[in-house]
Design goal:
glycoprotein; lipid degradation; AB_hydrolase_lipase; 305 residues; Rossmann fold; two-stranded antiparallel sheet; binds 2-acetamido-2-deoxy-beta-D-glucopyranose; Hydrolase_4; 9 helices; signal
């Protein structure tokens, strides 16, 4: 088997990384706590969509200027993410803070099922029904609910939508299936966009045939939630994912082959912070939806039942 694939599989099941020597307070804090620690205000808002209680984090204004911003931005994270992904590089290098200081109301959404949006009004979190969704439902139900909520608070302002990876998939799916929401947006920005995915280079594609085999069984009989089992003995075989070992360890190979290699853009001091804010929990159906697209020459399509 390809060594990179083995490393990738280990990485997916080995989310229990070795404790770092020095610790950065952001490792253990929640998004609102991290934002407050850096001197900004963070509010938490809850939008209910099909019973899912979606948490939005909002920075209402700039750090040193209390004036009410005139512009609004909504940031949507990607697969295995949450709102933390917009703030972890700190005030100077993270989009959420930069936009707040540039005069935006900054909203950060969290998709159903991630650590901030786990709640549901009536479904049990380990039930098949709870995890019966892919990015389609997020695009068709949740994102319109979020846009309605933001519009309701500040009806005059058009919204700049910024989606990373699956966050852009959600945007494209919503705008094509519910075109009335085009008028809510001033602009749509797609970072590492994902719609037609024929040309994807990440080794994650090697997992797609596995996903297509495993997902239907898991969705029906197994754990309906995709959450890689945390297994501590595996860490004996993988070199530690700490800043001290980063340059020499397989951790770096794994991250760079998965996410793209760019040493200059990657602050390895923050590695333990990034690792602690990964949100691996999602639905099998989300992964299967992407796998079906890869299997069909990267076509941008509805879930195939
Ligand atoms: C990396 O992050 C640490 C911790 O926030 C910070 O002190 C350091 O300046 C950052 N390095 C670079 C090159 O940005």
């Amino acid at each position: 088997m390809n060594i990179r694939l083995i490393v990738l599989i280990f990485a997916l099941i080995n989310v229990n990384f070795v404790e770092p020597v020095r610790s950065n307070p952001d490792e253990k804090l929640t998004v609102p706590a991290i934002i407050s620690r850096h001197g900004y205000i963070c509010e938490t808002h809850t939008v209910v969509s099909q019973g899912y209680m979606l948490q939005l984090h909002r920075i209402p204004h700039a750090k040193y200027d209390n004036a009410v911003p005139r512009k609004t931005a909504l940031l949507q994270h990607g697969l295995f993410g949450n709102s933390a992904h917009w703030i972890l590089n700190g005030p100077r290098n993270s989009l959420a803070y930069v936009l707040a200081d540039a005069g935006y109301h900054v909203w950060m959404a969290n998709i159903r099922g991630n650590r901030y949006s786990k709640g549901h009004a009536w479904l049990q979190k380990d039930s098949q029904q709870y995890w019966d969704f892919s990015w389609h439902e997020i695009a068709i139900q949740d994102m319109p609910a979020i846009l309605d909520y933001i519009k309701g608070l500040k009806s005059d302002s058009e919204i700049a939508y910024v989606g990373h990876s699956m966050g852009s998939t959600i945007l494209f799916a919503m705008l094509s299936s519910r075109p009335e929401y085009n008028s809510y947006l001033e602009s749509g920005v797609a970072l590492a966009p994902m719609a037609f995915i024929k040309d994807i280079e990440s080794p994650i594609i090697w997992l797609s045939s596995t996903v297509e085999t495993v997902a239907p069984v898991e969705m029906r009989h197994g754990r309906h939630e995709f959450r890689p089992a945390v297994s501590s003995y595996v860490s004996d075989f993988v070199e530690p994912c700490t800043p001290e070992h980063f340059r020499t360890s397989s951790c770096k190979d794994m991250l760079f082959s998965l996410c793209g290699a760019n040493e200059r853009q990657f602050n390895s001091t923050l590695l333990p912070v990034f690792v602690n804010h990964l949100d691996m929990s999602t639905s099998w159906k989300t992964l299967q939806h992407f796998a079906q697209e890869l299997d069909n020459e990267g076509e941008f399509q509805l879930f195939d039942y």
